[in-house]
Amino acid sequence: MLKSGNPLHRYLLPTAVALLPLVGALAQSKKETPPRPPLGLPPVIWPNDNPYSKAKVELGRLLYFDKRLSSDNTVACASCHAPDKGFTDQAPVSTGIGGQKGGRSAPTVVNRAYSLFQFWDGRAASLEEQAKGPIANPIEMTNEKDGAAAHAAVVGKLRGIPGYVRLSQEAFGTSELTMDHVAKAIATFERTVLSGNSPFDRYQNGNQRAMTPSQVSGMKVFFGKAACDACHLGFNFTDGSYVNIGIGMDRPEPDLGRHNVTRVVEDRGAFKTPTLREIEHTAPYMHDGSFKTLEEVVEHYDKGGIKNPHLDQRLKPLRLTAEEKQDIVAFLRALSGEGWKMTPPRAFP
Ligand code: HEC
Ligand code: HEC
User: Fold this and answer.
1) Pocket of ligand 1 (CB under 6 A)
2) pLDDT in tens, 57-69
3) Does residue 221 form part of some domain?
4) In ligand 1, which atom is closest to the CA atom of 109?
5) Fewer Cβ atoms within 10 A, N terminus or C terminus of the chain?
6) What is the mean pLDDT of residues 142-159?
7) 339, 201 contact by CB (below 8 A)
8) CATH number at residue 323
9) Which atom, in ligand 2's list, is nearest to the CA of 283?
10) Is 0.85 surpassed by the pTM of this model?
11) How would you write 34-47 as a 3-class SS string?
């Protein structure tokens, strides 16, 4: 028995009590193993300050589909990045709150886990940072005057929903849901939206019959004569670079893309090289949605892009035959896989 005069009692016990929250925090941060990505994809690199957990994915999934993240409860992330549309909205430009049109096409959320920088111009440095953007964007999800007010309004709304308070407790060990928690949960969910195990991946893995003869020919043109892999390379078909291929540069006041972020002259009209996975599900194409079909995209490259002072040197007329063009398109359709298909939640907290 410890007596009050005992030094053990005097020091150890209070110390142990003081350490209790730390023990709790350690239990919270106990690493859970994320599901293995489908064939053809490497493991996702999870940020140290936002590791994978099942509870966070579940909270993030609900928030992602929940229209209450917008001021008037009409727009969710999924309104512009819908699973049944390859996680895009299949429109040239997006429609946000009050029917307002934005200036750019919604990119797919599929395989965003593999890129640090987000948006067509790379202006967000992480998925966490990105997720805060639309909630504060007056043409996407908010009617509030500024970003801080928009975030406060959404967080206030969520804190009033007991189901979200409980899920927040499970995911983050606190019922004090904040904007950071919202962003972390949504980003965690997004990092599980993957596309692999496509016919191309199975072919690469040794299954000679996984692609049609036309797709195999198209693959050879893609990596050979057309050199599409100068930019669309690696398992996610992008080197993460920002390149001017001329899109929109024939307009009177073109979107200058990456230039708005870097202010570097050479970046005028440069946009992110996007992944080509699930490309058959995400028409129309390019940052302004200016091409309706993959055939039009291939024609664009065959012509050598759209001439402008900052056109990337690697774009040259390709002189592809009609058959080579068809084969490239067939190959692009071999990049449709699995790991991302889902139905929206049936009920919300
Ligand atoms: C009104 C339509 C709309 C809504 C709502 C919307 N987005 Fe987007 N999203 C876009 C558009 C358009 C872009 C591209 C903007 C740009 O690059 O400047 C984009 C870009 C992104 C990107 C970057 C993708 C890439 O390839 O770089 C991610 C990730 C994303 N959105 C996730 C979300 C999440 C999460 C939400 C909800 C919090 C959300 N979006 C809400 C339209 C929308
Ligand atoms: C010099 C780099 C480069 C080369 C080479 C290149 N691309 Fe691209 N690709 C890009 C960039 C950058 C974009 C986005 C441009 C924009 O929206 O302004 C893009 C967009 C696309 C898109 C539309 C993606 C979407 O989500 O809207 C497709 C499809 C595509 N490329 C296929 C190809 C094919 C096929 C080839 C070979 C014939 C090729 N690319 C060669 C850089 C390149």
Assistant:
1) 75, 77, 79-81, 94, 96, 102, 104, 106-107, 109, 112, 118-120, 127, 130-131, 134-135, 140-141, 186
2) 999 999 999 999 9
3) yes
4) 29
5) N
6) 94
7) no
8) 1.10.760.10
9) 27
10) yes
11) CCCCCCCCCCCCCC
